[in-house]
Amino acid sequence: MTKEEMWKATFENDASYDGIFFYAVKSTGIYCRPSCKSKIPKRENVCFFGTSEQARKAGFRPCKRCRSDLLDYQPMKEIAEKAKQLLEDSYNKSCDLNLEMQKIGVSYRRMAEIFKDEYGVTLSEYVANLRLVEAKRMLSDTEDEIIDIAYSVGFSGLSSFYRFFKNGTGLPPAAYRKEHQK
């Protein structure tokens, strides 16, 4: 790989080159991954290394933003996983998701962006899927009343549950149960 190819990857923040090479900035004494979102340095201040070890031996320290010292640092993925776990733990409870997301350290809006980027679905689509899967399981595996199932998967009323379930499966809950009960 030529230095021009490495510079192009650095300039474009190309994550596909992460782990293949690192760039260091002479004026700051820091080395980064090609995907680092820090300000693009002047070309004359940049040098390239094949490994983070080589960059450290040359006297550069790891970037605190892209964590070039860690093999697999993906903070957005970690945040998305925390949100996913929170949704899985609370999809059937009435709680203020905005407040719960703030405990993770990001706003609800930013979390929605991160989650969609990571999993390809919105927060509400993910919660709806969790509710639908659990409702289908309960209808086929238990004798619980439909109203009890509606409440246990997080609905506060039967009509909204019926509408949601029929939109998701094409069948009303009673018909689904009749077809799928074990």
Automatic annotation (TrEMBL):
SMART domains xref list: HTH_ARAC
Keyword Metal-binding: yes
Keyword list, A-Z: Activator, DNA damage, DNA repair, DNA-binding, Metal-binding, Methyltransferase, Transcription, Transcription regulation, Transferase, Zinc
Domain of life where this protein originates: Bacteria
UniProt cross-references to Gene3D superfamilies, sorted A to Z: DNA Methylphosphotriester Repair Domain (3.40.10.10), Homeodomain-like (1.10.10.60)
GO process annotations (BP): DNA alkylation repair; methylation
InterPro entries: Ada-like_dom_sf (IPR035451), Ada_DNA_repair_Zn-bd (IPR004026), Homeodomain-like_sf (IPR009057), HTH_AraC (IPR018060), HTH_AraC-typ_CS (IPR018062), Me-P-triester_DNA_alkyl-Trfase (IPR016220), Tscrpt_reg_AraC-type_HTH (IPR020449)
A single MF term (Gene Ontology): methyltransferase activity
PROSITE patterns named in the record: HTH_ARAC_FAMILY_1, HTH_ARAC_FAMILY_2
HTH araC/xylS-type domain span: 81-179
Signal peptide segment: none
Cofactor: Zn(2+)
Listed name of the protein: Helix-turn-helix domain-containing protein
Organism for this UniProt entry: Irregularibacter muris
